[in-house]
Specification:
Shape: elongated
Order of helices and strands: EEEEEEHEHEH
Distance between the termini: 41 Å
Helix content: 10-25%
């Protein structure tokens, strides 16, 4: 198979959801574009001989910089936590953001996103914890966030 790739990861054991095989992985535009015994035409090559090549993991239950009851705050911030999970192969996390009583949900999201700005080293999502489910929050704020991609 011949094609042009930005990068080819050579000779690793590629693990998919259903199988594993020793092969090359062709990367184009940041995505795995081909798996084959031998790929050519790469701008960059990575030797993965003796290594496992896997998609990144997802951790759907994280607590970063989250204040909790009694004034305690989780020890990890986005920088320390995401560096740690990346070292273990986790490339996406879903972290909890707690609404404070009386706080609009947009403010909860904005504050939490600001705590990740310039620090998050992986893809992340936000899991909102509703503390103050007023008619305004449930009828207007939450539907507006859902329309903007916060599911």
């Amino acid at each position: 198979m011949s094609d042009s790739f930005d990068c080819v990861i050579r000779g690793g054991t590629v693990v998919t959801a259903s199988d594993s095989a020793r092969c090359d992985v062709g990367i184009r535009n940041g995505r795995a574009a081909a798996l084959a015994e031998t790929l050519r035409g790469a701008g960059q090559e990575i030797d993965a001989d003796g290594l496992l090549v896997m998609p990144g993991g997802v951790d759907a239950h994280c607590h970063y910089t989250q204040p909790s009851y009694g004034g305690a705050v989780c020890a990890d911030d986005f920088e320390s936590a995401t560096l740690s999970v990346l070292c273990g192969g986790t490339t996406t996390t879903l972290s909890f953001a707690t609404q404070f009583p009386g706080e609009p949900l947009r403010e909860t999201v904005a504050t939490y996103r600001a705590s990740a700005e310039g620090k998050a080293m992986n893809d992340y999502g936000i899991h909102l914890i509703l503390i103050d489910p007023t008619p305004q929050v449930l009828g207007q704020d939450l539907p507006a966030l859902i329309r903007n991609g916060y599911t």
